[in-house]
Structures are given as structure tokens and as C-alpha cells.
Amino acid sequence: MLGLLSAIMLSVGMAACASLPDVRDLSSQLEPASTPTVATPKGTLPPAKAESLLGQRLRNAKKTDLTALAALEEAATGSPLVAGNKTTLLFDGPATIKAMMAAIANAKDHVNFETYIFDEDELGLKFADLLIEKQRAGVQVNIIYDSIGTLGVSKEFFQRLRDAGINLTEFNPVNPLKRFGNWRINNRDHRKILIIDGKVGFAGGVNIAEDYSHSSLFRSRSSAELGWRDTHMQIEGPAVANLQWLFMDTWARQNKSPLPDLDYFPALTAVGDKVVRIVASRPGGDFEIYKAFTLALQEAKTSIHMTNAYFAPDQNILDTLLSAARRGVDVRIIFPSQSDAGIVYYAGRSFYTELLQAGVRIYELKGSVLHAKTTVVDGAWSTVGSSNFDIRSFLHNSEINVIVLDAAFGASMESAFQEDIRNSKEITLDEWERRPTAERVKEWGARRLAYYL
């Protein structure tokens, strides 16, 4: 699908007019508060209590002042930390889809669903059937779907949802007549958000497509039929309201018809101990996810462990990553060994030489297509989201990432990272320099197109 998107972008002959900001010394450009804002259901914590809470959550973090990083991150993104949440990591499609469908089945008031891909395949039809069932049972379902991400889906599929009473919004339609005078084909909604009754939320990398019907090698005893490797999150608690607001903001920007008047923001209580930050970005915004990544990399002291499917960063943030490795930070990245997007795949590999020479350790996941977008910094700053580490995600797409500041959660993320390492092959500089000339040519060509990918 990303390859198709890239072809469309090139066919319309876009000029590379927009650009990412200079982030080479981002932390010195900010004026953070001495203590980051921590929101709770009962209001914002006083600075002393906020510092105490963060100290408890980060007490096992080593060598890193993550409280200071959190304050910088807030100054850069405008998003506060939210305390009192329960977070559940969901690995691969079957676990994610099962959890999402269970939450939908228990919905009482509404289901708000925003996705890039909603395929008309066996899994997509099963998901659609459940949404229709809930709509007919009196639960209002509202869906935002991306026009490029659903390009191969029939009109009848979405009409069936509409006929059941479900409200739908097509994000930035491919057909310019649907957005006459405001056609933005290069700006896509790559977010994956699900909110149930304003109380349970999901975000991450998983789309609704048959590729997610089976697990990868991750913690699996069977490799007979492998699905894509991905990571998603379920969130319960006050941070769900942030997801809800993002959905409603996108709806208002894309649809002149308002959402039905329902209980979208019920009173939420603390249900867990996780402190999270919901960071979202969109074209024309303030590059919030780009800045959050930059600060985490710039402030890293011991380790950066990243899993990312589509890697085509701009020079500024690439230099930030390389600088971390050169100053002794343990930087490891898991890339795909196979991809659904050939041009993006070779664009990512075009960076291997620079990364390896700087001391970055590179791995390629075996068996499955890698689609996960996760990073753990210093074992306690973690993010799971929809954003790839590329120009498209940082500049052209609407994306969402969930950042968790918590040493225990970071340990769970590290455990998953090590599991993926065991299912990967390490690429050494000596081996890489012996690759065929034909591969180098493909990488060179793909690198030239990085802005559009």
C-alpha cells in the first residue's frame, strides 16, 4: 500500500516545498518548566507531587534525568503527562484484534474508530459485522478511514456500514471533486485509534487487514502461517480522553456534519499507575512527534532500542541518531528483511553504511513482514505508535504515538525487543560492504525519493 501511495505522489509531480524544522540543538531552543505537568482526574499535580510521582515511576532508570526530559518534551509538544493509567502491550494481529473486538462487544454508548487500512477481506468483514451489530443494538459507531489506505475497498463495503446507521468520514479523498479547492492527496491519516465509550482506548501500528490474521515468530511455537509483526497498546484511564479529543478534532476538520451528541467524555478515574503522554502530529502542525523523538535521542545516556519498518529520516534527525551512537550509547535497530513496500525497503537499507560506521548495531527480522514502530530509550522512556521513522510520517501524515515514562513498562518493552533480536539476523559492516552492485543502485535510487516515501 505504501508503494502505491508513493507512486501516486510521484505521478502528480509534487514539489518538495514543505520541510522539517532544524532540530540539531532542540533542547537549547526550549524553555521547559522545572517540573513537567502531570494531569490526573482530580486536576494537575503540584510540582512537588509531580516530581515525587515521576521519581517513583523512574526509580530504576539509570544515569538519565527523565524528569528533565519530560519537561523538555512538554515544552516541545504542548502535551502534558497523564497519570493513573493502565497500559497493556498487544503483540501482533491476533492478540490486538481479539482485544479490540472484545472491547467493542462490551460497548454501551459509542465506538469511535480511526484507521489507515480497513480491508474488505475475511478479517475486515468480520470486524465490520461486529460494528454493524453494535450499531443495530443502539451503540453509535463513528469511523474515519483514509482514502488511500482503503483504495481497493469497494463502495458497497462502506455503503453497507452507512446503511446500518454508522457514521463514516473519508479522510482526504483521492477524488479531488470531493475536496474541491482543498485537495491534499499527499497528506494521509496514518493513525490507528479505537475508543470505546470514552473509557478504553487503543493505539499502535495494527490495521484491519488479513495480514494480521496470524502471528509472527514472536513468542510463537508455530511458523506454519506467519502474519505481520506489529505492536499495539490498550489504554484505560484518564489518557483515553486525549485519544477521544484527537478523534473528534480530525472528524471536525474532515466532516462538516457534527458527531451525534453522546457521552464522549465520561468522568474517568485512575485505574493504574502508568504515566503516559499522547503525542499526535498532523501536516501544518508543530512537528510534535518529530520533536519528541529528537529529544529522546539527544538526551539518551545508555541505550536506544528501536524497531521500525519504514526508515527514511531527514539528515537532522539521522545525525542525532548517529551522534548518540558515537558518544557511546548502545544503539540497536531492528529492520525488516522483507517488506510490502520495495522502494521504502531499499531507502531504509541505503542508511545502513552510515549507521554501521557510527557503531549502530543493525538486525533484520526473519520470517515475517515487520510493521512495528517502537522505541525504548534508557530502559524507561518508551513509545508505541503509528509513526515510522521517516519524512512521510514526520511531515506529511497525521500520526499518533503513546509515550510511557515507566521503568517497569520499559522492561517489558526491552523484553519484547530482545525476543525480536532472537528472531533476527545481525548485519555486520564487513558483510554489508560485500553486497552486490545491483543492490547499491536500488538503494541509491530509493534514497533520492525519500521525501515522497
In terms of quaternary structure, what is this? single chain
CATH class of the largest domain: Alpha Beta
Number of domains: 2
The termini sit apart by 11 Å
CATH superfamily heading of the largest domain? Endonuclease Chain A
Q: What name does the CATH topology of the largest domain carry?
A: Endonuclease, Chain A
Q: Give the integer mean of the pLDDT values.
A: 92
**Structural class category:** alpha/beta
Question: What composes the largest sheet?
Answer: 18 strands, mixed
User: How many runs of DSSP E, i.e. beta strands?
Assistant: 20
The gyration radius over C-alpha positions equals 21 Å
**What is the helix tally?**
16
Fraction of residues in helices?
25-40%
Beta-strand level of the residues, as a percent range? 15-25%
Low-confidence stretches: 2-16
How would you sum up the global shape? Answer: globular
Quick structural summary:
This protein has helices at residues 2-11, 26-29, 47-57, 66-77, 92-105, 122-136, 155-163, 240-254, 288-299, 315-326, 342-349, 352-358, 391-396, 407-422, 429-432, 437-448, and strands at 38-40, 43-44, 81-91, 110-115, 140-146, 167-171, 188-189, 193-196, 200-204, 231-236, 274-281, 303-308, 311-312, 330-336, 361-365, 373-377, 381-385, 389-390, 397-405, 424-427.
Structure description:
- This protein is of the alpha/beta class and 453 residues long.
- The protein has 2 domains: 261 residues, Endonuclease, Chain A (2-Layer Sandwich), CATH 3.30.870; 168 residues, 2-Layer Sandwich (Endonuclease, Chain A), CATH 3.30.870.10.
- It contains 16 helices and 20 strands.
- β4, α6 and β5 form a beta-alpha-beta unit.
- α4 runs antiparallel to α9, α9 runs parallel beside α10 and α11 packs across α16.
- The termini are close together.
